[in-house]
Write a structure and sequence with these properties.
Number of helices: 7
Distance between the termini: 26 Å
Strand order of the largest sheet: 3-2-1-4-5-7-6
Number of domains: 2
Largest sheet: 7 strands, mixed
CATH topology of the largest domain: Rossmann fold
Order of helices and strands: HEHEHEEHEHHHEE
Helix content: 40-55%
Strand content: 15-25%
CATH class of the largest domain: Alpha Beta
Length: 190
């Protein structure tokens, strides 16, 4: 996972990074980046519980990561605090999506990059089934996970057009939105 995402990181040439998400299996991307040793990493989550868990995990790994509790629509950082921002599998949960995008732009330094990776609302049921089946979760967990996608996660996700409409109201100077079989990858530059 870390190397799959490193293509975004290495292109950015950025020492100050903000990661707004938890990875699979309870790992935190901010901790995985800190293991590389070349970046000043900050992690942001709205949940106090997850911030505490992440802090403990980083301490146990002997890593310096600045985890903060905060809302993506009102980030607790000064302007131009970061060179790179990654938001994975969290955007659909933001109650104020436009404000969150504006905040992402605000906290990025000039030339900074943001990458948003999330589900696409118009993802086909077949694509969801394929993705969940590839997780090899067992019968009960497969049924529950497919239900979560169908009845919760996809309903909160956005289409490419919705993202384009939001982004017209931000100050990002470069916008690249790519679709994959299950979601969207947005690469934004300030």
């Amino acid at each position: 996972m870390i190397f799959e995402r490193s293509r975004y990181v290495s292109r950015a040439g950025c020492p100050r990074m903000l990661a707004c998400w938890r990875s699979r299996r309870g790992r935190y991307f901010a901790i995985e980046l800190a293991k590389l040793g070349a970046y000043s990493i900050t992690g942001l989550d709205i949940s106090r519980t997850f911030v505490d868990i992440a802090r403990n995990n980083a301490a146990e790994a002997g890593l310096a990561v600045d985890f903060r509790q905060g809302d993506a629509a009102k980030m607790p950082f000064p302007n131009r605090s970061f060179d790179f921002l990654l938001c994975r599998a969290a955007f659909k949960n933001f109650s104020q999506p436009l404000r969150a995008l504006q905040e992402m732009c605000r906290v990025l330094d000039s030339g900074g990059r943001a990458v948003i990776i999330d589900l696409r609302r118009d993802t086909s049921p077949a694509a969801v089934s394929r993705a969940v089946d590839e997780m090899h979760l067992g019968v009960i967990n497969t049924i529950l996970t497919k239900g979560a996608f169908r009845f919760m996660l996809l309903k909160r996700a956005y289409t490419k057009q919705q993202f384009q409409d939001f982004l017209k109201q931000t100050n990002f100077r470069s916008i690249d939105i790519r679709e994959n079989f299950l979601g969207l990858e947005l690469m934004l530059s300030r």
